[in-house]
Amino acid sequence: MDADKDCVAHGLARMEGYLLWNAEVEEARRRAARFTGELPWLTTAQREDVERVYTADRVAASRAMLSRISARSTEMRGEYNDRYRALRARCVATAVVTAGAVSGTCTALILLTR
Question: Which pTM value belongs to this model?
Fold first, then answer.
């Protein structure tokens, strides 16, 4: 059952990524059209070329940004996992020492009261 949930979650994540990327590409196209709209002297062929180049540049910039974000998030995940392991080890060690101290104190009190 967990495998099915993981598969569904993975599929939904991929679909979300696909939709977000398509929205980014569409935004690049809108910006390209707005940019060429500010240049009324362009011919239709020139306008199409400028829009194509502008869109390609914007998509490449977005892809590079996403790659940097992905790399940094992977790096941060590793850092946080390391910190979590260290914190967990300290908590376990503190719990063991505390349990030992309480046990020792109880044992000492029992022996002293006899």
Answer: 0.66
